[in-house]
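Problem: given the chain below (246 residues), write out its structure.
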Amino acid sequence: MEEGKSNVRAVERALDILLCFTEGSNLAMSEIAEKVGLHKSTVHRMLATLEDRGFVERDPSSERYHLGMRMWELSAHLSRSDDQSVIWQPEMERLRDRLGETVSIYVRDGSERVRIQAVQSNQPVRRVAPVGARLPLYAGASSKVLIAYSDRFVQEQIFGDPAWLLAIDLDQYKQQLEEIAQQGYATSFEEREPGVAALAAPIFRHGQVSAALSVSGPSSRLTMETMREYSSVLIESAKRMGTMIK
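Solution.
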């Protein structure tokens, strides 16, 4: 009986820790300990477990925590008015209607990117983008945006990951990232899939890249010239979406 109560109490403490992130998106362990009224050693152990399961993520450079990708995966099965992927959907639909192509939102999870929202093109030949799909970071316009606007520490972590393709010329890739950071968007032309092209722009939150807004479709329609023409419209949509989240 006592063991059962102890297990329930551990669950309650874990939930209390997760609820701290309703008051802030980027918290130090000491801040969390103060909010939940627990010793730092207890909070440290529970955060380690939550991090191992993907519910929180720790920034090694600052030792601060934020919600992890497991929360996105759970929220994908809900329809909530405060879910930013839901908040962004009307703007995504407007962008889809204006450009005629599939619109997606990606966030980074380690050495992968995850599609958390998508609005499919209405055209007969179109790019189908399933929500929840995980894709590698080493190819694609959204991947380049998520890396280009990350800080140097995060970039070096990504480049040092064993999943990174050795065939990529890293010096040339870094130069490309600098150009992307200057122009405000990235393009890809049949990099990951034959016949598919995409362009992407960053969505910022508190001055940091939060997600990548992407437009993708057949390379026969999304030529490099067409993508350059679409870039200003995409960037403006990404800026508006950045103002929609707290």
